[in-house]
Amino acid sequence: CKMLSAVRVSQPKKIYTFWSKFLGGSMWFWILWRLKHDWPDVVGHHHVLKDEAEGHH
């Protein structure tokens, strides 16, 4: 049956593979960097931690 014939997918050029890995790695580096530096704001604990550091309860 012709409907069940295999579909051929060509391999991407090496430059596309390189750029996809480079941009994907850059994205995760940026996300983790921002999370490291802004995690109190991201999870919503910035004001709580700030008040505790100043001695307010």
From TrEMBL:
Q: Where found in the cell? A: Mitochondrion inner membrane
Q: Which domain of life is it from?
A: Eukaryota
Cellular component terms per the entry's GO annotation = mitochondrial inner membrane; respiratory chain complex I
Membrane-spanning regions, if any? 15-33
Q: Does the keyword Transmembrane helix apply?
A: yes
Q: Which family does it belong to?
A: Belongs to the complex I NDUFB2 subunit family.
Protein's name according to its UniProt entry? Uncharacterized protein
